[in-house]
Amino acid sequence: MNGITITSESIRTPDAIRLLCALSSELESITGNSGVDSFDANEMDDPRACFAIARDENGAAIGCGAIRPLDMQTAEMKRMYAHPKHAGVGKKVLNFLESKAVEIGFQRIVLETRVVNTQAVEFYLKHGYSIIPNYGKYSERVDAICFEKHLGFSV
Question: Which domain holds residue 32?
Fold first, then answer.
């Protein structure tokens, strides 16, 4: 995974749009829902939000992810995607967003995925996320599974 860089970028760039479309297509094939109705790109205008893009050694966009504030202590992770041919990129994006969340002052991250998306479920469990009761608009959804991770603070 040498040569991979992760940076905060605008969600309105052609690379961002291309990654988000790839994610939506993949989610549609796995879950039957693209997830676009659960995300508003305008939320990335919040100063406590972050959209990140992973690039390979040639500068090609190969992954993305976002956090947005739910409240003063909690960020919600959204739109996580890594190109299937680039193993390890998802972990790098996740680590970047977790670090950014700590930098912003969040104490925890929550997220939702679909139960049928077993690869995502395993990914979050492997990286220290715990299953929690479904929250917000997902609270009554039996096809959803929600996670949280408490973020450590270094002083």
Answer: 5-150
CB atoms near residue 68 (< 10 Å): 18
Surface-to-core class of residue 74, CB atoms within 10 Å of its CB (0-12 exposed, 13-18 middle, 19+ buried): middle
Count of structural domains, the chain = 1
155 falls within a domain: no
In-domain check, residue 39: yes
Instruction: Dump pLDDT digits (tens) for 132-155.
Output: 999 999 999 999 999 999 997 544
pTM over 0.85: yes
3-class state of residue 138 by DSSP = helix
Q: Which uninterrupted H or E stretch holds 148?
A: strand 144-150
Residue with tokens 């406590």: 48
Residue appearing with tokens 């479920």? 121
Within a domain: residue 82?
yes
Question: pLDDT of 21-61, one tens digit each?
Answer: 999 998 888 888 777 778 889 999 999 999 999 999 999 99
pLDDT at 155: 42
